[in-house]
Amino acid sequence: MHIAIIGTGYVGLVTGACFAEFGVNVTCVDKDAAKIAMLEDGRVPIYEPGLDVLIEKNRRAGRIHFTTDLKAAVHRALVVFIAVGTPPNPDGSPDLSQVEAVAAQIAEALDGYKVIVTKSTVPTGTGQAIRRVMEECCPAGASFSVASNPEFLREGDAINDFMRPERIVIGCEDPQANAILRDLYAPLIQTGVPLVATTVETAELIKYASNAFLAVKISFINDLALLCDRLGCDVLDVARGMGLDSRIGSKFLSPGPGYGGSCFPKDTQALAHLARSQQHRLRIVEAGIAVNDDMHEAMLGKIKTLLGEPYTDKVAGMLGLTFKPETSDLRESPAVAIGAAIRRLGVTLRASDPVAIPEAATLLPDVTFCEDPYETAAGCDLLIIATEWNLYRRLDLERLREVMRTPAIADLRNVCDPMQARRAGFRYLGVGRR
Question: How many helices (H) and strands (E) does the chain have?
């Protein structure tokens, strides 16, 4: 089977590489000629563990190709995936202009029957909008089906999530298209991966509902951590006590400075906007958004407490800049937002990250970037742990204290043991830790 994937971001590249690994012939399409040239040269424009190896393996085997020629890719394919961006509009609704533009281009290129599948995260009703756009643009005699196949890939573990998914969701009312998509996913379905077969509209909502629920879970534990700060309780013990209940589970109960990335911020806003458009308010989702918005200021409060005034003669070091470990993604990163707020206080900021320094330099132009934690901490009055990279879980506290001007740690990810930090002579503040 030949498939085409329009869009070479996280979703498009991971989806393409993994289908190629299953033996499918894949053509990845992007209008960015520089990105396509990079991929054809064997270089991957994003950081995702294992993705470069998987792409190179399948590129050499001739199962994955990269092009700017959408028309040629559509001609070869039976299934065409739309995996372009849906960034937020100012009112929180998703901008579907890229999806609709690509749908029109696909329609104009149709030369026979195709299955058009949305991988992009889109609100309920987008499938119908794609159908309308394509019906207006497709040539006489061409035919197509529209389906929704949302992705559930975590940045940093995306390949494993594709290869060993907890479920596959296919929204499609057309029996022929349904059979084609089941055949495409047969290597996973045959291993017992649950398949949710439903309508296009329901599949679209499943994606938003899933992300919103996880975001609310993060906001719940973050809000509870702030209460633990006031009560003198340990939020990690609280989270463990909660998570051992199988009805709750332990995942997404790690307190921190708030969720970020390309999905949770925009998807919660989009779902809340969708509900309001139907004269309904998802009050729990809105509350989760509000808590997340407040977390940056709460973390800044801890930083101010440890630095002490006046701020203008202080130096802080920040470890980690991405919104989570094992990715280079800085979109909506709490670390970047907090770093910018620190600079506005007049604090001199030094920072480090294992993979994201080149991108971060454009967002934080007046920050000094360093290669490792100890260079970052040199001469600092405060060390801020903002992303929980494994590199930061076993810091040599004695060495840190020697290079810092003032030994203090704002542990926004709770990676240090508070008692060990204090025994090493540090003033320490975590998130909901005693």
Answer: 18, 14
Rounded Cα gap, residues 209 and 285, in angstroms: 10
CB 317 within 8 A of CB 383: yes
pTM of the complete model: 0.93
pLDDT digits (tens, 9 = 90+) for 318-357: 999 999 999 999 999 999 999 999 999 999 999 999 999 9
DSSP 173: -
Q: Whose CA is closest to 104, among 56, 148, 136? A: 136
- CB neighbourhood size of 217 (10 A): 17
Q: Give the span between the Cα atoms of 291 and 306, in whole angstroms.
A: 23
Whether residue 141 is predicted with pLDDT greater than 90 in this model: the reply is: no
Q: What is the C-alpha to C-alpha distance for residues 225 and 299, in angstroms, rounded to an integer?
A: 11
pLDDT, tens digit (0-9, with 9 covering 90-100), for 124-140: 999 999 999 999 998 88
Show Cβ contacts of residue 6 under 8 Å, excluding neighbours closer than 6 positions. 12, 29, 30, 70, 73, 80, 81, 82, 83, 84, 102, 106
Q: Positive or negative, the Cα torsion across 10, 15, 17, 21?
A: positive
225-257 per-position pLDDT tens digit: 999 999 999 999 999 999 999 999 999 999 999
| Res 434: pLDDT | 84
| Token reading at 70 | 């959408």
What is the per-residue DSSP string for 324-344? SSS----TT-HHHHHHHHHHH
User: Cis omega before residue 310 (within 30°)?
Assistant: yes
d(Cα 56, Cα 243) in Å, to the nearest integer?
Answer: 40
| Bridge partner list, 350 | 317, 368
370 an active-site residue? Answer: no
Instruction: Read off the pLDDT of each residue in 17-29 and give the average, rounded to a whole number.
Output: 97
pLDDT one-digit tens code per residue, 294-320: 999 999 999 999 999 999 999 999 999
Q: Which residues pair with 372 in a beta bridge?
A: none
Which amino acid makes up residue 414? N
* Three-state SS letters, 122-159: CCCCHHHHHHHHHHHHCCCCCEEEEEECCCCCCCCCHH
Q: Single out the catalytic residue among 18, 172, 263, 370.
A: 263
Backbone angles phi, psi at 39, to 5 degrees: -65, -40
Which residue bears the tokens 């573990």?
Answer: 157
370-406: per-residue pLDDT in tens? 999 999 999 999 999 999 999 999 999 999 999 999 9
In terms of Cα–Cα distance, which of 113, 59, 118, 72 is closest to 94? 118
